[in-house]
Design brief:
Largest sheet: none
Structural class: mainly alpha
Number of domains: 1
Number of helices: 8
Distance between the termini: 43 Å
Helix content: 55-70%
CATH superfamily: Hypothetical protein af1432
CATH architecture: Orthogonal Bundle
Strand content: under 5%
Number of strands: 0
Bound molecules: fe (ii) ion
Length: about 160
């Protein structure tokens, strides 16, 4: 099985746990972020497989515990142990993925290229899953820059 499907299979087991409704909302978000991560990687000349795996695991702590408190930092630790167990990434890839997850909630700061890719993919999913809902204040600035990068009109206007 390829690396992305290994991670997706791992995530899918959460469908069968309690609080299915909440978990399915998180899973929908996660899979949406993964698709946007793939698109942004293509646009920026980055590795889409690493971007997709970062996205698939970025909210793993919330998916697992349903508690979003400090989920980026906790999720980075969790993702590292999951990736070590799966043995599908080398040390450098694991570091890139876990650093991106660790930093993904700090939307106002600028970090490395894979960290920024993940933050932007997160924002695109928040802002585009339902274009009737305007972007939140925390996402607005990044979303505006992404529309410019992809040469798109604001669908909320
Ligand atoms: Fe998150
Ligand atoms: Fe997210």
């Amino acid at each position: 099985m390829n690396r992305i499907d290994i991670v997706i299979n791992y995530l899918n087991k959460y469908i069968y746990e309690d609080n299915r409704e909440m978990r399915s909302i998180y899973l929908m978000h996660i899979f949406g972020v993964a698709q946007f991560a793939s698109l942004i990687a293509l646009k920026r000349g980055l590795d889409s497989e690493i971007a997709i795996i970062s996205a698939l695991l970025h909210d793993i702590h919330t998916l697992q515990t349903l508690d979003p408190e400090k989920h980026a930092k906790k999720g980075a630790l969790l993702a590292r142990s999951i990736l070590n167990e799966m043995n599908i990434t080398d040390d450098k890839e694991t570091d890139i993925i876990c650093t991106a997850i660790h930093n993904h909630s700090s939307k106002a700061k600028v970090h490395g290229e894979y960290d920024e890719l993940l933050k932007d993919a997160d924002v695109l999913q928040h802002c585009l899953y339902n274009t009737k809902i305007p972007p939140s204040m925390k996402d607005e600035e990044r979303f505006r820059k992404l529309l410019a990068e992809f040469n798109l009109k604001d669908p909320h206007k």
